[in-house]
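This section describes the prediction task in plain terms. A model, or a person checking by hand, is given the sequence of a single protein chain and must write out its three-dimensional structure as a string of tokens. No templates, partner chains or ligands are provided. The sample shown here is typical of the held-out split.
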Amino acid sequence: MKSKIVYLDGLRGLAACIVVISHFFQVFAPSVFEGRREIEHFAFENIAARTPLNLVFNGNFSVCLFFVLSGYVLSCKFFQMKDRHIIYSSATRRYFRLAAPAFLSVILAYLIVIFGLGAFDNIRGITLSSMPDPFVANTGLLTMLKEGLFYTFFTYGSQYNPVLWTMTYELFGSFLIFAFLLILGRRSIRFAGYAILIYFFIDSYYLGFVLGMLLSDLKNSNRDWLAYINRPWVNFLMLFTGIYAGSYPYINPQGTLYSVLVWESANFSFFVFYHVIGSFLIITALLNSSRMQSLFNLKLFAYLGKVSFSVYLVHFTIICSFGSFIFLQFSTFLPYGINVLLTAVITLLVIFAIAHVFYRFVDAKTLFLLARWNERMFNGEKNKGMKRPVQVEKSIEAD
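The expected answer:
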């Protein structure tokens, strides 16, 4: 199981990097998200926005990858061992595993607001980005505490750190998985349950959690059902189709190669649906492809996976404060393109330096303390002869 965790974490690391890139584009090349020629800065923006090249900056697709990975990782040990205590253990830790690092990221953003270090609003006249200024949040301490500990996880709130809109999906999606496994996880009728959930969440981000759990079931329960479709041409087809669906654009798809994917519907969210389906297909291909697994097992991707949650949590705040400040200073004597490139390089170095420290002293410490808590909480059950997971699963948190 360890190698699987490494290559899945490697994919998560790549997805986190794409989220970071997407926010650089949102700040410095907003036309790729808004589709307006009058705010273009680079010749490639129009083409990139309308083709699979947008995978380089398609942050929403990467978030959907996080959700499918969460569905897979949070359920795989249960399907391997069929032990409900794995679910109890995961459920008791889940909020704290997400909340402790996320709350520290809220405090970081809050300090930027308090000390007036945000610089994004100062560069909007140059970059032409219509993204709201993240540093106009309420400066009340009580408001910040409520936002960081409650609203972020139970109301889709993200007042101080906008990337935290995913945390409510992560928490609710996790408990959707836990409830499903406890009720139907050891029953053959669970596949009817999957069908019902897929129908109910067909164009919701929660579909990602359901499809990830289904993949885990097919891969890890008794026999590897995915092995029956493990053919090079099938893996290639799933990867190709996943890239096509996952690169469904932010802009209106009419007149693009994605127009065939749209049918008449007043309320259906094609944007979410195709990004989730693309994630599902790519992860299915990864689970069956030894070549893809070898790629994402490389040390570089393993490291990116390790620090990915920390990168996700701190990058936006740094881009809109330090990164925007650097860009503003360079804008007096550098052309726009060179300025953006140099700003991106310097800011990325700072993001990964801070994320590394954040991982060591916040994220890793949180995992360690929760593992110890888990040992103590379930130690009595172990003494009674009850089977207990011996390794704490690594969860997949998102962008």
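For orientation: Residues 386-399 have pLDDT under 50 and may be disordered.
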